[in-house]
Design goal:
Radius of gyration: 52 Å
CATH topology of the largest domain: OB fold (Dihydrolipoamide Acetyltransferase, E2P)
Strand order of the largest sheet: 3-2-1-4-5
Strand content: 25-35%
Number of strands: 24
Distance between the termini: 93 Å
Largest sheet: 5 strands, antiparallel
CATH superfamily of the largest domain: Nucleic acid-binding proteins
Low-confidence stretches: 575-581
Structural class: alpha+beta
Number of domains: 5
Mean pLDDT: 84
CATH architecture of the largest domain: Beta Barrel
Helix content: 25-40%
CATH class of the largest domain: Mainly Beta
């Protein structure tokens, strides 16, 4: 950690030295007036200001130089052990960052001074509060406190400003000196720093107030004496005859407790949510009396409580069977329900674990806010028995129970998940594996079929060639036989006749003996040519297999009658010698 801090400080010092070549900005107004191009130039800054707000868990720091306010981005290794106090003088030296709404200061040096003077808080109405340029400026609004809760290391106080809800955020780093839930329905003046919800295009999407502490809620008027709060059944809240801002009491049995936010109660008339930041030691099954003010919430009123106390113990409430496919009824909102569902997947969530399930064709979300996990890992395809608080969801403009387009379940702990059936053998994962195996097999079969087709084609070509060769050979053999049986025999007969004629002529000393001898020589040559032709027709070995095979084929028939043996040997060296000659 020390090395990390040293490296960070070294980097900031280098940046600071580089930026000293430019003139440093010394006022917040000059920083806020920078255009989009100048915000990206990392201009140097050096200002003296007063701390107006600091959230130690988030590192959110606002300062004011007496004219205007701005946000200072405090990195984790720059956060002091003791939080910055509002009203403390602070010297800031660093560079400008583009920010996500207005430009911010990225400090290299944060040097605390003595006590400073807090700026005046500008009194604004709702319209002025929501002016985008009001970001980071100190403001004061007239409001009515509606509810309190704890979340993300902060105290959340929701206030109503001219009929509109605005959220205020207080850092929760020290024990509370006041009871914030006692402010519910009190008319107050709230002093804080205007914060902004924004998107990634630098557009304002909402407004909130950063408030230093409960002392910034200034009560305008004392409470008027009121009669004892009447006991009202849960189903009797905010009916036509109900007066505005009337303090009431409700009694019910606890079905779910959310520390820092509130609890769910069930009575004969239904269930409801009681919102309060009040710490209490209440568990499921406790009978509770809650005193507070009804508030309008979707589908069913809630209670913003100023006091919650345990008055008895009842049997642990049994969940009501929920029919997902049926039309929603107001009694199901905030009710402890149970149902069978198929588990689909788990979605990462900052608040806990979000499960996606399906029941009777309805896909819904299951929220498990506890860090604990189910005893057995959940697998897609498992059948679960779920128990939790039902919360309606709708996209319809008319928010009534029958227009609910869905619901979600708020689980109390991992035991609200009971596995009733394990993942079937034929699950999605196995189906993908089998499909992949079949695909690979099909590809292999296809490749084998293509290879077989190529082999068959090759063999067919060979067979076709052999067939053609065989047909040619047979045709040559037939022609050779025909020549041998006709022409050869006729030539032999003519030769015999000429030989006989020659013998007779020689005895008579005829002048025709000379031409006769020439005819006999020509005839003998014709017989030799015909024999050579017949031999060539009868054997294609010389063409196909070469000289050794042709010699063997030619000589073997001549040795069969005598039973002689022979062997053909080829001396390659001798052949090459002949080739050189």
């Amino acid at each position: 950690m020390i090395v990390k801090k040293c490296l960070s400080m070294l980097i900031w010092l280098i940046l600071l030295q580089v930026s000293t070549a430019q003139e440093a900005l010394t006022t917040v107004s000059a920083i806020r007036s920078l255009n989009s191009e100048d915000r990206e130039r990392q201009l140097p800054v050096k200002i003296d200001a007063v701390v107006t707000y600091y959230h130690p868990a988030w590192g959110v720091l606002f300062v004011h130089d007496g004219v205007d306010g701005i946000c200072v981005g405090v990195s984790e290794n720059q956060r002091p052990t003791a939080p910055f106090k509002a009203g403390t003088h602070l010297h800031v030296q660093g560079q400008i960052g583009p920010g996500e709404f207005l430009p911010v200061i990225l400090p290299a040096i944060l040097k605390l001074g003595g006590p400073g003077t807090l700026p005046n808080y500008q009194r604004v109405n709702f319209e002025e509060l929501f002016t985008p340029a009001m970001d980071a400026r100190p403001v004061e609004v007239q409001a009515i406190v509606k509810s309190t809760s704890f979340s993300d290391e902060s105290l959340i106080v929701d206030v109503e400003v001219e009929g509109h809800m605005v959220r205020t955020i207080l850092p929760q780093n020290e024990p509370l000196q006041k009871l914030p839930w006692q402010l519910v329905e009190r008319q107050v003046r709230v002093q804080g720093i205007a914060g902004t919800h924004f998107n990634d295009q630098r557009q304002m999407s909402g407004r909130l107030l950063y408030v230093a502490g409960l002392e910034s809620f200034i009560i305008d008027a004392k409470d008027k004496p009121q009669d004892a709060a009447p006991l009202v059944p849960i189903e009797g809240l905010l009916r036509v005859e109900s007066p505005l801002r009337q303090k009431v009491r409700v009694v019910g049995v606890t079905t779910h407790v959310i520390p820092g936010r509130g609890l769910y109660l069930r009575s004969e008339g239904g269930s409801m949510f009681v919102q309060t930041a009040q710490p209490f030691s209440i568990t499921i099954g406790d009978e509770v009396e809650a005193e507070g003010y009804p508030i309008v919430t979707p589908f069913r009123p809630s209670l913003s409580a100023i006091n919650v106390k345990k008055i008895g113990v009842q049997p642990i409430p049994k969940p009501v069977e929920l029919q997902p496919a049926k039309t929603r009824h107001s009694r199901e909102q905030c009710e402890l329900v149970t149902l069978e569902a198929d588990f689909l997947e788990q979605v990462p969530s900052r608040e806990g674990k979000n499960l996606i399930c399906r029941a009777e064709g309805q896909i819904f979300e299951v929220l498990l806010s506890t860090p604990q996990s189910p005893q057995e890992p959940l697998m897609s395809g498992m059948k679960l028995r779920l128990t939790g608080i039902c919360d309606f969801i709708t996209t319809h403009p008319l928010i009534i129970p029958r227009n609910a387009t869905g619901f979600r379940l708020l689980l109390r702990n991992p035991t609200d998940i009971v596995i009733t059936a394990r993942q079937p053998w034929w699950g999605e994962q196995r189906a993908r594996w089998i499909f992949g195996s079949l695909l690979v097999l099909a590809m292999a079969v296809g490749a084998w079929a293509l290879t077989l087709q190529w082999v068959v084609k090759s063999q067919s070509d060979v067979i076709r060639e052999q067939t053609q060769q065989q047909a040619t050979l047979e045709e040559r053999q037939r022609i050779a036989r025909d020549l041998h049986d006709t022409l050869e025999q006729e030539l032999v007969g003519v030769t015999m006749l000429l030989d006989d004629t020659a013998k007779r002529i020689q005895s008579t000393q005829s002048p025709a003996s000379q031409p006769l001898d020439l005819a006999r020589r020509l005839l003998r040559r014709a017989r030799e040519e015909s024999r050579s032709t017949i031999r060539d027709l009868r054997s294609v070995t010389l063409e196909k297999r070469g000289l050794p095979a042709a010699l063997e084929e030619l000589l073997r028939p001549m040795t069969v009658p005598s039973g002689a043996q022979f062997e053909v040997k080829i001396d390659c060296n001798l052949i090459s010698v002949f080739g050189r000659l």
